[in-house]
Amino acid sequence: MAALEPPTGPTDEELTRRAQAGEAGALGLLLARHQAPMRAVALSLLGSCPDVEDAVQEAALTALRRIGDVGDPAAVGAWLRAVVRNACRMRLRATRESPGLDGLDHLHPRDDEASHPERLIEQHAMRDWIWDAVEELPQQLRLVLMLRHFSGITSYQEIAAACEVPVGTVRSRLNQARTKMARVLMATATQTHDDASTLAEESRHEAVATLQAWESGGLPREIDELWPTDSELVGRLGRPGEHIHPVPVMRQTLEDGVRQHLRHVVASREIHIWEMDVTHPGAVHICPPSLTWLMFRRNGRVQRLRVVFPEPLR
Predict the structure, then answer these.
(1) 182 to each of 57, 58, 137, how far by Cα in Å?
(2) Are 167 and 157 in contact (CB under 8 A)?
(3) Where are the domains of the chain?
(4) Is the pLDDT assigned to residue 153 strictly greater than 60?
């Protein structure tokens, strides 16, 4: 009887330790190696349905953030399957009609929690790898993924309202986005990546400067260039069939007594999301306590701005 050949390539333990040291390629190999058993766990709990792929991809994103939590690197396979199992159970418990993350409430961004996904990625050496993969997605897919996983607009219903598409379209785009993300992550694991934190920090600076400039009544040159004459306000605050520039509308809201305070920023190269808290002492019109700016850019300048409210205006 021929002796069994020893396994080739690095062991799970070696890959896990390298991933915990910040080596993106090692984590990519781990996820590729264990993708089939992770999917088998999801199938056993959820049955054959679209949620299976959702659960597996969400578990992969969780692994990206929490690989440092693995106490026994040799047993990383069991840990990955447990992450999938937990994601599936949370999905089964979730009420689909209720707002939130539909089984991913632990990812909901809150400034007073260390579990904020953006903060966790910022703390992890592999954040740039993840964001480079996000950048590879088509704009429609990138938008729903950014909203779902990195903003406060997280339920399918909220995302559908923000994007002005049916809920079914949101589900389809998320499925496509996660599938493409997994493929891109595997293909780019060993490459160098841009610094994602720099882009987010620049966007935060622009948000603060924009709000300050609008309150003072004058836009400094660099902020004025952010809002060129062909910028357009679309959606609820725009007017169908008519080009409306964002600046006069936002200035009018200030004159009406509404104040916006930056809470959170999410940024890719073409899509920037600014989440605002709203106060209105003595305001003419009462707004919801929060709103979100969805900005679509070209060459750094805003082409379209859509202001999204968490609930319909009354």
Answers:
(1) 7, 10, 11
(2) yes
(3) 12-194, 197-308
(4) yes
Q: In what order do the strands lie in the sheet with 301-308?
A: 232-234, 301-308, 290-298, 271-279, 259-267
Helix (H/G/I), strand (E/B), else coil: 301: strand
The count of other CB atoms within 10 Å of the CB of residue 33 is 16
Contacts of 265 (CB under 8 A, 6+ apart): 200, 203, 204, 207, 272, 273, 274, 275
Cβ atoms 144, 159 nearer than 8 A: yes
**Which pair of tokens denotes residue 218?**
């004058």
> In 10 A of CB 286, how many CB atoms?
12
pLDDT tens, 34-72? 989 999 999 998 888 777 877 887 788 778 778 888 999
Model confidence pLDDT, tens digit, residues 92-145: 775 333 333 233 333 333 344 444 444 444 444 456 667 777 888 899 999 998
- Nearby residues of 250 by Cβ (< 8 Å), 6 or more positions away: 214
Q: pLDDT per residue over 231-257, tens digit each?
A: 999 887 777 777 889 888 888 888 888
DSSP letters along 43-99, please? HHHH-SSTHHHHHHHHHHHHHHHHGGG-S-GGGHHHHHHHHHHHHHHHHHHS-TTSS
For residue 145, give the nearest of 276, 218, 57, 222 by alpha carbon. Answer: 57
Instruction: Using a pLDDT cut of 70, give the percent of the chain over it.
Output: 77
Q: How far is CA 192 from the centre of its chain?
A: 21
The Cα–Cα gap between 27 and 24 comes to: 5
For residues 13 and 30, give the distance between their C-alpha atoms in angstroms, rounded to a whole number: 10
Residue whose C-alpha is closest to residue 142's, from 176, 112, 117: 176
Let me know if 143 is exposed, middle or buried by CB neighbors in 10 A (0-12, 13-18, 19+). buried
For the entire predicted model, the pTM comes to 0.63
Q: How many residues does the chain have?
A: 314
Query: Domain 197-308 maps to which CATH number in 3.50.50.60, 3.10.450.50, 3.40.1160.10, 3.40.1280.10?
Result: 3.10.450.50
